[in-house]
Amino acid sequence: MGFVVWIDLILFFVLFALFVYIFVSVNITNLHKVYLAFHFTMMIWPFCQFAIKTTDNPIYQLFYVKAAFVDSALLSTGWVFFTILLTGQTRFLRRKMLLLLSAPAIFSAACILFSPNSWFVQPVNEEYIQRTYGPLFWLFIAVIIIQAVISLYVISTALVQELAPRVRKQVMLVLKGILAVTVFILLDIVLNVVLDPYLPVIPGMTSLGILLSAVFFVVSINRDKVFDIATIAHQDVMDTIGHGILVLDEYDNVVEINRFLGPHMHLHRGERFDIRFIFPESSPAIEAFISGYHERPLERMEIEILHTVIRRYLKIQATPIMVGGLRAGRIVTFQDITELQRLIHETHQQNRVLQERNHSLIAVQKELSETNRQLQQMAITDSLTGCYNRHYLTQQLEDEVILNREKHIPFALILLDIDFFKNVNDTYGHLAGDEVICQTVKVLKQELRQTDVLARYGGEEFIIYLPDTREAEALHVAEQLKATVEMNQITIANTADPVTVTISMGLLTINDFSLNSNLFEDVDQALYQAKNKGRNRIVHIAR
User: What is the pLDDT of residues 324-368, one digit of tens each?
Assistant: First the structure.
């Protein structure tokens, strides 16, 4: 066998070497072995072309011919699918579209296998090394051309979009691969089929086209790390995150969209993303967010909204992707914060209830405090006159007297009695008597100092404590009180003339702190003497 016979086998081994290179140099998973199956089918054509020339048996030769063309039918469909994957046009991979793309190749493969009445291929001199082709061959060629056109359409659809430079280079390599294999197949048909009667056979043209397309695919895969395990892990991480993640290029075209967001956004890779689309209505906050998104792309934008369509609270963040100081795109995240908002609302409600209870407790506390104050006041004051009672004065004097004696501070006590008070009650009644007592207390308070203590001692008797008061000053206060009461005219209901009363006073002044006398007995003795001496007078006892 000459060198011409071995051309296809050599190309087969070159393709096989590329196949091994992909296995060794690129980290892939079982999911990406689909490409390796596609690559393997590219190797079958040159192998079958070689195998035809190695046997004289027409049956084996026909088998290799049919295997090569069935492989080509499947390979053309593989080109389409691989083009779709590399260009990111995943919308073409829906179930109905897959069936539609696969049907022509399956049909042409069936026609090749069964080939009724040798409609596909016929031997020359009872061998298939030289052969002629029937109508089914041209049907097969039509399917190949259709698949090539579909691949070119997918590529053109990707190229008309504003792709990132990296993606555009990748798509261009795929385009060169498709064009290379298409051109060489057409040349093989024209030169070796159409012009076969006029030109010698040129072997290996289709195999060479397959090899060139494989080289372009391998370059694209290796340079852009299409099957890199890090890329796969990155997508898995994106899909497992409980937030919506949208990765955009610098032109707002979709580069990645995770599984969480996919069912809600209905976006596909390569499509243009419109930020306004995600908002069901407008508001000043939304307009400010959209304006900042467009006008300040280098800033991180954030907004929280209640999405009125899905009835969920969303936190939307747009963060620039910076590479080498330049913006390469954006990451837009969508976080469902409905549960967080519910918890915040419940917390606010609980805080509001607690505040209301707090206010109620504070109000109750104030009421209790006021009640306690009133009770304490009632415990130390006289209910009729409002001045202190005898019990309070007794307690007060205990501490005051001890302090005064320790520091030698002079003080005085005045015990006074309203003269002939019984006659007032008998003449005008007890209510009038109460009025006389109250009016007398009123004028007494007007003459006393703020530090002086007036207390009702019992009935119409009152006692006054004058702290830090010397003897002369105490006498002056007593005279002033006596005169004021005497001049006071008290109006009684149903009485024509006002009533006047006088008071008798016992004054006790303390200057000698070595004595240990009973203060109340001494001042009571002074009052007793004032009454015996005719009333309306002051009797002074000094100690």
Answer: 788 888 999 888 888 888 888 888 899 999 998 998 889 999 989
Residue 88, domain CATH: 1.20.1070.10
CATH number at residue 477: 3.30.70.270
In sequence order, the 6+-apart residues with CB closer than 8 A to the CB of 11 are: 46, 204, 207, 208, 210, 211
Would you state the structure tokens that stand for residue 383, as one six-digit string? 């209910």
Q: Count CB neighbours of 421 within 10 A.
A: 18
Instruction: Note the pTM of the prediction, 2 decimals.
Output: 0.43
Helix (H) or strand (E) holding 81: helix 58-87
Give how far Cα 453 sits from Cα of 88, 307, 392, 510, 525, Å.
99, 73, 10, 16, 20
- The answer to the question of residue 257 being in a domain is yes
DSSP secondary-structure letter at 161? S
- Total number of domains constituting the chain: 3
Can you spell out the DSSP letters for 486-542? HH--B--TT-SS-B---EEEEEEEE--TT----HHHHHHHHHHHHHHTTSSSEEEEE
Does residue 376 lie within any of the structural domains? no
- Does a structural domain hold residue 504? yes
Q: Are residues 254 and 336 in the same domain?
A: yes
Decide: 283 and 272 in contact? Cβ < 8 Å: no
Query: Where in the sequence is the domain holding 501, given as residue range(s)?
Result: 390-542
Active site residues: 460
Domain match, 83 and 123 both: yes
Give the integer Cα–Cα distance in Å for 299 and 405: 81
Question: Of 138, 312, 316, 294, whose CA–CA distance to 244 is shortest?
Answer: 316
